[in-house]
Amino acid sequence: MTETRGERKERTRRAILDAALALLEESSLVALSLRQVSKQVGIVPTGFYRHFDSIEDLGMALVDESFESLRAMLRDVRQGREGGAPGWMDIVDDSIGILDEHVHRQRSHFAFIARERTAGPPLVREAIRHEIELCERELATDLARLPGTDRWSTEDLRVLSGLIVTAMVAFAENTLHAVGRPGAEKLVVENARTQLRMVLVGALNWTSRP
Amino acid sequence: MTETRGERKERTRRAILDAALALLEESSLVALSLRQVSKQVGIVPTGFYRHFDSIEDLGMALVDESFESLRAMLRDVRQGREGGAPGWMDIVDDSIGILDEHVHRQRSHFAFIARERTAGPPLVREAIRHEIELCERELATDLARLPGTDRWSTEDLRVLSGLIVTAMVAFAENTLHAVGRPGAEKLVVENARTQLRMVLVGALNWTSRP
DNA sequence: AGTTTGGGTGAACGATTGTTCACTCAAAGT
DNA sequence: ACTTTGAGTGAACAATCGTTCACCCAAACT
User: Which residues bind DNA (chains A, B) (predicted)?
Assistant: First the structure.
């Protein structure tokens, strides 16, 4: 059983991405060297260039990959909601549960996003910012579909989405920081649950300005 | 007019801190080299060790300094509130205005915190996390002093404070990202204002679980 | 007046960095 | 069967990195 050329290339490309993700759990892209990655993969430094132009280029690929998995999660959240119309608070509990599970399963992806969102090279930062803004938009249209949002201006829906996304980003960060401390983990989840409920109580009592 | 020994030392120490803050506006501590800082200050690399043990040590000093200025700001926020009892929404407007002004005046400090909070060396990250947690506690006791928080458990007050602080951190980050784009700046402020109002509407309609 | 202290200097070290170039050699294309 | 392609190699480069050491000299102390 021999390996086709493209297969082999894709395999080392994956190895590079995985090696980078592993190294980036404890440091940042701006401090990551091409040679560290090569060594971890088991190839010679120059081999790196066959797959990426630079560390920043690698970072852009990781942004794509990370948000691909994040979008898969968001599909899960929506899917868990369709069929039947559970109460607001059930939506909160389910969504946070799913997010929590995904953060654990894709730990390195979320850790990457959390770090490079503020510390990465400018292009990477901008790409992450853009992706998060897309998430906000999608959440806004989702919220618009729910009953009880009649009195909301589209502008206020966007602002509310921003608030929720901000809280969820913070929740993901806190979850990452709490892994391995089981007590702290439960606390972080409960914290996020209550916060989202508070926001929702605010939302349900909100009336957009004329 | 000669300079006393301690004065001279303090002057170069400040120069190092300032040089680091300037360099850290576009990069991160983990990518900052001792030699860059020395060159920017105008001293030889070894001179650095007369003031700090390492870059991480410098980072800890910057954490102290940054949160000292942040605490000064929080005093302003409280002071602007005492005397007279303006409405909730006035408190929101005033607080955000003050925060906005301070982010501009201490841009490099806030940029430092925003970056190293997630990307800095472990000790620096932990120090920043601790300081922010202190801010949450202080906000919680402040909120407890306000009228209308009778039906709130102290636990829920803490959770609410966490939500507000999270939103304010995000606001500061957005403000930093918007500097130089006057339109965007006004939008960011208006965004934060509305979000805080939403949270407050939620808070005013909240009843802690029995 | 004589001695100590300590901020700043400058050379030197071994290690690591990104990038170049000329190479191999097996898979893919002819 | 013969040629081309391209992933991976290995040597070499000029820079930069953190850290060491011995040194200077003016302020501070005795």
Answer: 33-52
Domain limits for position B193 = 54-204
The verdict on residue B8 lying in a domain is no
Query: pLDDT per residue over A120-152, tens digit each?
Result: 999 999 999 999 999 999 999 999 998 878 889
Residue of A nearest to B27 (CA): A119
- pLDDT, tens only, A24-66: 999 999 999 999 999 999 999 999 999 999 999 999 999 999 9
Query: Are the C-beta atoms of residues B16 and B41 closer than 8 Å to each other?
Result: yes
Two tokens, residue A71: 């979008």
d(CA A41, CA A16): 6
Contact assignment for A129 to B199 by CB distance below 8 Å: no
In a domain, B39, yes or no: no
Domain count, chain A: 1
Q: What is the pLDDT of residue A210?
A: 63
Predicted local confidence at residue A149, as pLDDT? 83
Return d(Cα B117, Cα B165) in angstroms, integer: 14
Q: Name the 3-class secondary structure at A198.
A: helix
Q: Which nucleotide minimizes the distance between its C1' and the CA of A55?
A: C18
Task: Say how far residue A151 (Cα) sits from the centre of its chain.
Answer: 30
Give the pLDDT of residue A88. 83
Whether B62 maps to a domain, the answer reads yes
Q: How far apart are CA B199 and CA B71, in angstroms?
A: 23
DSSP secondary structure string for all residues of A148-165? T-TT--HHHHHHHHHHHH
Mutation pick from A156, A159, A196, A200 vs chain B, by most beta carbons of B within 10 Å, is: A159
CATH for A110: 1.10.357.10
Q: Which amino acid is at A21?
A: L
**Residues of A in Cβ contact (< 8 Å) with B177:** 129
CA distance A196 to B161: 13
CB atoms inside a 10 Å sphere around CB A112? 25
User: Which residues from the 54-93 window of protein chain A have CB within 7 angstroms of nucleic acid chain C?
Assistant: 54-55
| Cα distances (angstroms) measured from residue A195 to each of A39, A94, A166, A198, B82 | 44, 14, 11, 5, 28
> What gap in Å lies between CA B172 and CA B150, rounded to an integer?
30
